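This section describes the prediction task in plain terms. A model, or a person checking by hand, is given the sequence of a single protein chain and must write out its three-dimensional structure as a string of tokens. No templates, partner chains or ligands are provided. The sample shown here is typical of the held-out split.
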Amino acid sequence: MTQVEKETQAAPAAKLSLPTLTMMVVGSMVGAGVFSLPSRFAQETGVAGALVAWAVAGTGMLMLAFVFQTLAVRKPDLNAGVYAYAKAGFGEYLGFFSAFGYWASACVGNVTYWVLIMSTIGAIAPALGDGDTVLSVVLSSAGLWLFFWLISRGVKEAAAINRIVTVAKVVPIVFFVILALFYLKPHVFAENFGGADYAGSLFQQVRGTMLATVFVFLGVEGASVYSRHARRREDVGRATILGFLSVFAVFASVTIVSYGLMPMGEIADLRQPSMAGVLEHAVGTWGEVFVSVGLIVSVLGAYLAWTLMAAEVLFVAAKDDDMPRFLRRSTAADVPVPALVMSTLLSQVFLIVTLFSDDAFNFALDLTSALTLIPFLLAAAFAARIALAGDRAGTRELVVAALATVYTAFLVYAAGFKFVLVSFIVYAPATVLFVMARREQGRRLFSPRELVVLAVSVAGAVLGVVALALGWIHL
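The expected answer:
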């Protein structure tokens, strides 16, 4: 037996209950995005567009949640859901890209948390700016590695902290909604209903908010990522639906009630976290402080959950021989340390990239969403495929899978040319890890079909680099 196999076998899986899985889903979803929603939506749409956008996003993400619920039951042998479903449905190379894309999106998403924390503190410490100064990056880097140390102590300890933090961070968000309703001004709400002149048509308004809604709903698949830890397989699907329903109304409410407090043009100009600025306008300085403290607790909790999920995806992919063998190592405390190191390093790289971005927070937020779209699209398409082929598939299962597929395809379109190209720049170099895994197994590097996928990804990456160099797109 090799040393890698001994280390892997020495890691007994911790069994998670339905409440714990649900809390992990909620903890993953409630993070930096919700505190940025007021200004992000006000930059794109008015009340009418926001209502349509949430209806589209809520329906689409609910369909995805049902997809993960169905696949958890129909395919109980597949762990780390998003990645495993893509591999089972469309082959090893696209499965690898799905694993890498989902992992990379988690790492970039973690960058948004640190940018938002520094921007929040920057309101009283100007040297931190909007979270994109050199000092901000240095302090954020220290936070990255501090959390690496915490998580390396064990999954059980980190999961326990996450449960406590999840409760703590939901309270200020709900309190914000209640206060906003109390101070809501009907005439301001009515003026914001149709949107401002800069918002464009209703379709443009809805499209402009799609990546923001994807970002706040990331984590809906969290229970499927932890499927190997579940006490009962059925709990994976139940936790997915319960987690989604628990936060959807809160997310939509945060956006809609904000339109009743300030003109949308003023909301759009607020610094992040814009929720703090909205509450300050309504109740005074203490409202900004209250939200800012809640944000820091929320973001640190979400960072903890997402770092765990990112490492889990690399670990399971390595165990399935789709990533290099060194990533399958774990400690006796069930912590995949090499995968955790890789996750922290990638977040570190993107933290440095924010120094060269025009808008560090929104760039990281949109890129996080864009990187997740391919894994989501492949998972939905896999559900549609087995619904068409299986004897037990009913009309409901087929309709749900079809709607989820159409929704995620629309999200790719809504992401726009810029983020599709930047995603290719991230995806293409990852093939080095795929080649390493194939060489370790003494296998042929690429099949003819995989060579086509490789050519497309490399061509997209080259075009993306050229577009950046010539100024066609900007970070």
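For orientation: The two ends are 48 Å apart (CA to CA).
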